Amino acid sequence: MQQKIKQIFGISHPLIWLSALCIGILASIPKFLRLHIATWEMLIDVSVAGTYSLFVWYYNLYFLPRNHQYRFAKSLALGIVVMTILVLIHQLIFPHYNMPSMMLMFHFRGLIINFTIYLFLFLLYQQYQNRQINMELLEAQFDLLKQQVNPHFIFNSLNTLKSMVDLQDKHASEFIVMLSEFYRASLDKKQAALIPLATELQTLHTYIYLLQARFEDGLKLEIDVPVEGLLIPPFTLQMLVENCIKHNIVSLDEPLHIRVYSTATHIIVENNLQLKRPSGPSTHTGLNNINKRYQHLGKGNIDSSSTTTHFIVKLPLIYADIDH
């Protein structure tokens, strides 16, 4: 836990102690300005404020990363108790100094100290969370780039093209055009966070054409999605289709059926289950990539599930009109 706290806030213990001492001195400045004040009285004030500052530092450092909801209110409530205990302890040590009569002043100081430290840590925590989100987005973009230049897809496409040329297939030239179109679309859309669903489906049709040249009737795709006014992160559907092919048998004897359809809230990609054997544990790289991009866009999480016969992925609908 200490390692995680250090990673999030990057605040060393000597810095905490030094800042607590400085806060104690600053909180006692009004008394320093008095012309007739004993040294021991100044030290008492610095001791109370500095010790309280240490408590606030470590309490918020420990609890803020775990759950910052209502944390400030709890910190204030506990701070009142801690400040009362500190004042009473110092009263026992220095009985000639009537500290209980100034209890309200000490609590007011505690409120200012608590607010200042909490606000500082909260801003650091928000900065850490934003940095984590940016790192996850970069990771998702890198994974997407790897998917776009998938060497297996290139190798299989070139092998398919070679076979078509050897057989003098009249569709060989069309296959070359579609292959170049697919990679042109990859370059055009790689920087976009969202694209029209119609554009995504056009790329998907190109991708399916290239796959069906290899699998023929072993791969069947059915699309029933209204495209008007809908957006989607680029290559989402292509990655999901690729995921279906990666994990399932695709053959003329056992065709793979993929359906893309919609409900009132989701786009759904569904395929019949006919898993390859042997099948190792899935890393869910593609699904995690898509989920991170949806999270970064603030559109929630995707949902994936499986039955005995089908695997289903649900993508939240994203409307071009924000007032939809």
UniProtKB/TrEMBL annotation:
Superkingdom as given in the UniProt entry: Bacteria
One GO MF term: phosphorelay sensor kinase activity
Membrane-crossing segments per the record: 12-30, 42-64, 76-94, 106-125
Gene Ontology cellular component annotations, sorted alphabetically: membrane
Signal peptide region: none
Keyword match Membrane: yes
Domain spans labelled Signal transduction histidine kinase internal region: 140-218
Alphabetical UniProt keywords: Kinase, Membrane, Transferase, Transmembrane, Transmembrane helix
Alphabetized Pfam families for the sequence: His_kinase
PANTHER family: SENSOR HISTIDINE KINASE YPDA (PTHR34220:SF7)
Protein name in the entry: Histidine kinase
Organism: Chitinophaga silvisoli
